[in-house]
Amino acid sequence: MNVIIFSKDRAMQLDLLIKSSPGGLVERVLWTASDNDFGNGYSILFADWSDIDYGIIDVQQSMNFKKDLLALMDDEEDYIMFLTDDDVFINPLPGLPELADDVACLSLRLNPNLPYCYTLNRPQKIPTMINNTWNWQAADADYGYPMSLDGHIFRTSDILPLLKKLDYTNPNELEGQLARHPINRPKMMCFDKSIIVNNPINRVQTVNNNRCGNVSAEELNKMWLAGRRIKLEPFIGIENNACHQEIPLEFE
């Protein structure tokens, strides 16, 4: 499976994602830094993880995001998953089932009992499921949103033509375009537990005014440069009630 992580100004949070990731995943990181301090953070990160087999692409803001993303795509892999640097693996990744013909994606962030939608700040209706599979076209909120870049597994043959055809210059524009042009398969599926959770403690882009916490990316980067790291242990096995959930950070 091809795995591509999008990151901006969050070396410390990306470090947490990488160390939470299951063994055997080949993760390619597409990143950008707003200034030299954030860039230095990534230099330290990639030096720390130099023994991990993943490709690293240095994408400055003036470069062509779409071109660089397509260069990372591996059309020989049957499946592709995108992640963002504020995702964390909280449970082991089970063996991946083969997607049925009517299934658009396998969601690692959803599970059959998430009553709350963080991004909309309201309760959400949990759809009727058969074997953890449901009709997303008739579903509410997160359960009706198949084209997320936070831990949804797609067929490469479904997503690659969209990546080539659509117009976008950053991850937020890409997700917006995918949401407007979803894969033409009516169902989604998930596991019994969420495998990842998105920890939206800050926002580093200005494209969308997404709801988030107030933990400064600048302050986290200063801590990172000083040698501090986020503890992984408090995230493992956490019982989340939404696929986005603000989780306080502990440091080592």
What does this structure look like?
It is a single chain. The protein has helices at 11-20, 36-48, 65-72, 156-165, 171-180, 217-225; strands at residues 2-8, 27-32, 56-58, 79-84, 87-89, 103-107, 116-117, 122-123, 133-135, 152-155, 187-190, 196-198. The protein is an alpha/beta fold and 252 residues long. The protein has a domain at 2-92 and 146-183 and 195-235. Strands 3-2-1-4-10-6-11-9 form an eight-stranded mixed beta sheet, sandwiched between helices. The chain has a two-stranded antiparallel sheet with strand order 5-12. It has a two-stranded antiparallel ribbon with strand order 7-8. The mean pLDDT is 92.
List keywords for this structure.
two-stranded antiparallel sheet, 252 residues, eight-stranded mixed β-sheet
Main beta sheet strand tally, sense and closure: 8 strands, mixed
With strands numbered from the N-terminus, the spatial order across the biggest sheet is 3-2-1-4-10-6-11-9
Tell me the overall shape: globular
In DSSP terms (H or I, runs of 4 or more residues), the helix count works out at: 6
Average pLDDT, rounded to a whole number, is 92
Would you identify the regions where 5 or more consecutive residues have pLDDT less than 50? none
**DSSP helix fraction:** 10-25%
Task: Give the strand content.
Answer: 15-25%
Q: Ends: how far apart?
A: 32 Å
Pattern of helices and strands: EHEHEHEEEEEEEHHEEH
Structural class: alpha/beta
Radius of gyration: 17 Å
Count of beta strands:
12
